[in-house]
Write a structure and sequence with these properties.
CATH topology: Rossmann fold
Low-confidence stretches: 1-6, 10-24
Number of strands: 5
CATH class: Alpha Beta
Helix content: 40-55%
Structural class: alpha/beta
Mean pLDDT: 90
Number of domains: 1
Length: about 220
């Protein structure tokens, strides 16, 4: 490389700037979302991922998996995915419903996520459970509801408020619900406060899905 001083006309050119002054790329924060369902939940969270990436590309990296497993099996699967990944996930979100699964398994999965978070310095496990189903979280985008319903009743109510037939696995569910996201978060928080000291299986209806949106709201 030549030791000659740079020409005066070149001093202000970008390629002459010292390396230490160049902006360094910021490594993304890695999130793993592992859902019980294979389509409804993954479709929904893909909407969240796309919204963040459109505004803040490269800041949040989300890997979304519809595992087709439930409660304890879902958590074990998430741990397996995380341990085999080349990237260290900062947050691992386990998305599952109460449905008809055993109460013991449902509650223990939630407590196990908390235990794993305490044991891991760099990774937090989040149990994004819904009792009874994720459609309750969807419905909170429109109304505050503290009365337990049959799971199928959520479908008819959603159809009424969406002004179209609600169906499982529809690809545009996030887009449809997103304008009312703030309402859903506030409704879900209010409901959760009613069950402050109860086991998750005793909280009907209730959902913790709002927690991922509460954490990532600065990107929304």
């Amino acid at each position: 490389m030549s030791n000659k001083p740079p020409k005066k006309g070149d001093l202000n050119k970008s390629w002459m700037a010292p390396r230490r002054d160049r902006k360094r790329g910021i490594a993304p924060e890695y999130h793993l979302i592992v859902a019980e369902g294979k389509e409804t939940e993954p479709n929904y969270f893909e909407g969240l991922k796309n919204q963040i990436n459109s505004k803040y590309p490269g800041r949040i990296s989300m890997k979304i998996i519809g595992a087709g497993k439930n409660t304890k099996g879902l958590l074990k699967y998430a741990q397996s995915v995380a341990s085999s990944s080349v990237n260290e996930f900062r947050h691992i979100w386990i998305v599952f419903d109460k449905d008809d699964f055993p109460t013991k398994d449902f509650d223990e999965t939630c407590s196990e996520c908390e235990k794993l978070s305490n044991e891991n310095e760099n990774t937090t496990y989040h149990a994004l459970w819904s009792n009874q189903c994720i459609e309750y979280w969807f419905l909170l985008h429109y109304i505050y509801l503290e009365t337990p319903l049959n799971r199928k009743d959520y479908f008819s109510k959603l159809s009424r408020y969406m002004k179209r037939k609600y169906e499982k696995n529809q690809a545009d569910v996030y887009t449809l619900l997103n304008p009312n996201l703030h309402t859903a978060i506030e409704n879900a928080k209010k409901i959760a406060r009613r069950y402050a000291d109860a086991n998750p299986s005793e909280c009907d209806p209730c959902t913790k899905v709002y927690e991922i949106f509460d954490m990532l709201k600065i990107y929304l």
